[in-house]
């Protein structure tokens, strides 16, 4: 057993397990903090990180009841975030079910481990659609097929199907689940990805394989695909070159938001 008994898999840890077993070992088993920048130039990367966090905070405040106009007046110092906010106000909530839960986390179990998904927004209609919405501040939108293959997409739909019944009024048929990526830097462009029972079974098999792969691993080799090294803090430790350029970060890699979870306060259904 390589992991603590209480270890929970998130989007980020699953992505690391898929991309590079060595990175997973350094980050989650050895818990090594390595002083390398994620992307270059570092100041530009830090600014983009702050802007993205600020935008998501605005969405959360608005969904909790703060008027959009009030929040817009706070953006005089950042025209770019103000433009994203305008995109959100025009299209962000259009056509979504009225029952909405912002910044909510759900957990499920698989292969003896917890799976944790933290959602920007869940919009549900009991007996109807169950929509996952994720806002992106990326400068470029990936192809829909790339978004469908993202571990975020796989994990978020799976966990909602397994652990969202209390929000929906009963078990959620996978065919009623849809995930929407909304790209506010592209004027609110949306990419919608459907779900199905067959896809759920494929996702469960894939997630189980990732979990069991790191649970049973005796060695944690470096990835053979060095493209995964460009935005990895351990790349100099592994002698894998310089930091990737921040302008290429958006659609290639995404750093998981740091958040502290109280597992006792996260909704769950055992299965």
Notes on the structure:
- It is built from 10 helices and 9 strands.
- By secondary structure, the chain is α/β, with parallel strands linked by helices.
- Helix 1 crosses helix 7.
- The radius of gyration is 19 Å and the shape is globular.
- The relative contact order is 0.20.
Summarize the topology:
Blueprint: E1 8-9, H1 11-19, H2 21-29, E2 39-40, H3 42-63, H4 68-72, H5 79-91, E3 99-110, E4 113-124, E5 130-136, H6 144-149, H7 151-163, H8 165-168, E6 177-183, E7 189-194, H9 197-216, E8 244-245, H10 249-252, E9 267-268
Parallel strand pairs: 1-4, 2-8, 3-9, 5-6
Antiparallel strand pairs: 3-4, 4-5, 6-7
Helix pairs in contact: 1-2, 1-7, 3-5, 7-9
What's the quick description here?
The protein is of the alpha/beta class. 39% of the residues lie in helices and 19% in strands. Mean pLDDT is 86; it is low at 244-249 and 251-271.
**Averaged pLDDT, please?**
86
**Largest sheet, strands/sense/barrel:** 7 strands, mixed
**Helix share of residues?**
25-40%
Proportion of residues in β-strands: 15-25%
Distance between the termini: 23 Å
* DSSP strand count: 9
Rg, Å, rounded? 19 Å
Total count of helical runs of at least 4 residues:
10
Low-confidence stretches: 244-249, 251-271
**SSE sequence, one letter per element:** EHHEHHHEEEHHHEEHEHE
- Overall 3D geometry? globular
Q: Which secondary-structure class do the elements indicate?
A: alpha/beta
Question: Which structural traits does this protein have?
Answer:
271 residues; two-stranded parallel sheet; globular; disordered C terminus; alpha/beta; seven-stranded mixed β-sheet
